[in-house]
Write a structure and sequence with these properties.
By secondary structure, the protein is an alpha/beta fold. The chain is about 35% helix and about 25% strand. It is built from eleven helices and 14 strands. Strand 7, helix 6 and strand 8 form a beta-alpha-beta unit. Helix 3 packs across helix 4 and helix 4 crosses helix 5. The protein is elongated. The relative contact order is 0.13. Bound molecules: adenosine-5'-triphosphate (ATP) and magnesium ion. The site of magnesium ion has 4 residues, from helix 1.
Length: about 300
């Protein structure tokens, strides 16, 4: 089965000379919920614009639904629902009328079923109650929902969502995550960008990590996380003693704080039980001890040697 999105050495240099995307080769398999992760300015929106044929790449190629972009835009785009930074809305129209307008611009959309389609899309993104209000009175999160509703008017093979939870409160973010899971279970491939690591981890089957226009890694989320080692956490009021004992046992300390020491998990030959025994024998009051499963954040830190903006 051909990938739903495939780029080869895709690059974009803006007119000012800035290389926003640098030799990106990306493969998005059919049926994936693919998280495109990267900090602000790492080239996510630029990549999405190239995928949607809105801007020309400087070099390299992009295929979407197995057709070349931007050349096949006219046949590809009707099969793709897209939400790209700052959806274009008419402020003087209500949310509902904006969707009716967008739907009537689609030559494949049956006018007889238009109202029902629009109502269903509004319902799906939680905007039914606010549908009659003018879009200019919408909050950022409501505008984002309306943009998403526009992408959902028709069933699509592929949804491309650029930071779909931007501007939403935690409840709204949860709703979008649930929606994305529902769409994926209907068989839609979802490509979504985010700068929130935990969001990608919660909803995505696959991910790619970008930094400064370059791809750091891509693959199934479980594999990316498994590449990292997780961490050992000891909670104790005797931090200095705990650090000393752990070091004696050959454990690499990552952080020691007020009442907590985090470290790399011990080498396989050191039993965790042995480690706790050593701590206790040295008089360390152990209040908590455990190894956390590696997260995408651990993988990211291992890749870049730095933290990631997980709080948003
Ligand atoms: N039209 C443009 N002209 C010149 N430079 C641009 C243009 N659009 C984006 N850039 C630059 O290209 C780089 C990548 O921008 P892009 O918007 O693709 O990043 P992003 O990953 O989407 O960031 P964010 O998380 O903030 O949305 C940035 O350094 C940005 O300043
Ligand atoms: Mg962006």
């Amino acid at each position: 089965m051909a990938p739903v999105i495939e780029t080869r050495e895709l690059s974009k240099r803006y007119r000012g000379g800035h290389l926003a995307v640098d030799g990106l080769s990306l493969t998005v398999p059919e049926g994936a919920v693919f998280g495109f992760l990267g900090p602000n300015g790492s080239g996510k929106t630029t990549t999405i614009r190239m995928l949607m044929g809105l801007i020309e790449p400087t070099s390299g190629t992009a295929r979407v639904l197995d057709r070349p972009m931007p050349r096949a835009a006219r046949t590809v785009l009707p099969q793709v629902g897209a939400l790209i930074e700052g959806p274009a809305l008419y402020g003087f129209l209500s949310g509902r009328d904006n969707l009716l307008r967008i739907d009537s611009a689609d030559p494949t959309a049956d006018p007889r079923t238009r109202r029902g389609r629009v109502a269903a899309a509004l319902e799906r993104v939680g905007l039914a109650a606010a549908a009659g209000r003018k879009a200019k009175a919408y909050s950022l999160g409501m505008k984002q929902r309306l943009g998403l509703a526009a992408a959902l008017l028709q069933p699509r093979r592929l949804l491309v969502l650029d930071e779909p939870t931007n501007g939403l409160d935690p409840q709204g973010m949860r709703e979008i995550r649930t929606l994305v899971r529902e769409l994926a279970s209907d068989g839609t491939t979802v490509f979504l960008s985010s700068h929130l690591l935990d969001e990608i981890e919660q909803v995505c089957t696959h991910a790619a990590v970008m930094a400064q226009g370059r791809l750091l890694t891509q693959g199934p989320v479980a594999e990316l996380a498994a590449g990292a080692r997780g961490r050992l956490t000891v909670t104790t009021p005797d931090v200095p003693d705990a650090v000393r004992v752990l070091k004696e046992q050959g454990v690499v300390i990552l952080e020691s704080g007020q009442e907590r020491v985090t470290a790399e998990p011990p080498p396989a030959e050191t039993d965790l039980a042995e480690l706790t025994a050593a701590l206790v024998a040295a008089g360390v009051r152990v209040r908590g001890f455990g190894v956390e499963r590696p997260s995408l954040e651990d993988a990211f830190v291992a890749l870049t040697g730095e933290g990631f903006d997980v709080a948003g």
